[in-house]
Amino acid sequence: MKGIQCRVYIPEISLNFKILGDIFLSLLKMIVIPLIFVSIFVSISNLSSVDEFKDLGIKAFIYYLFTTALAVITGLIVVHVFPFHVNMQVQNTESLNIQKLTIEGFINNLIPSNIFESFAEGKSIHVILFSILLALAVLFINQSKKEVVVKFFDGLNDALLIIAKWIIYLSPVGVFALIAYVVADKGLSVIFSLWQYVLLVLIGIIWHFTINLGLIAYFIGKINPLKYFNQVKEALLIAFSTCSSSATLPVSIEVAEKKAKIPKKTAGFILPLGATVNMDGTALYEAVAAIFIAHLYGIDLSLFQQIIIVLTATFASIGAAAIPSAGLITMTLVFTAVGLPLEGIALIVAVDRFLDMFRTTTNVWGDLIGAKVVSRFIK
What we know:
The protein is mainly alpha-helical. It is about 75% helix and about 0% strand.
């Protein structure tokens, strides 16, 4: 809220904060592509063998991709079903570079022709597909060579996570600067629309947490979701308070093995993998954010652009770091994919920490249900 106060008392100075906000956005864009690539690569390449990938990995990834895509679609449904009104448009759409996608263009752009060009231009879907293919290829090479490659990328992943944490530490300054500039330039009425955004995200998260995941637990996992919730509630409380899937992981594994009676091998693989690749709440939040900001800027997103949101939010969440506010980083991918202005992130980040508690709890709940579901189908 300091950014808003700055607009009230020193509006002329607030307009000069844009450079600080631009630096913060540049840092986010700098880290996001390498972080997504390495995180996905490490998750797959750390499997011990191709057989393990087939037995555990494929089942886990099918579950994670399905529930994450379901979460994104739920978010889009919520935005379209529940009416909301934005009091003003922040910018004329004619000055924005909005992509108009067709089926032919979508298919042609799905497969990269030059992966280095895709890295340079930040084409996230290309990078994600290449990361998956490369990681699968590593599972087929000589074991000694595989260990060298995996060890290198494990270390690189740790280093990238440290950089990501440094950038997130700077978020108060970056968000302050961006909010001060946007509010000084466009007015306070933009901020007053945020209560609608918070409500939309919470409706979507509650729907996914209780209905979507509850039905999956009951019909596929063959468990009583209320009873299972009671067994794992300790992990959910940790997730809510820390806003970190990684910080919750030790507790998640403990309650899964001791209270939910999930086999150690399954829990030890599925839950760490889920903490990295399963981000239902984050993906839903990003989808709602994209539509909300599009309305705020007066942008009419086509059906194909909304399909791009589903794909990008789903796959970007796979590489989201399991740390607080990681969605702030991957959200840049979703916005860039459909041509939304990154400056819009500054407005919704003002309520990011509050929503992060609910997102992370949903992420961990999805991980725990996934462990139970996958354990039913392991040979």
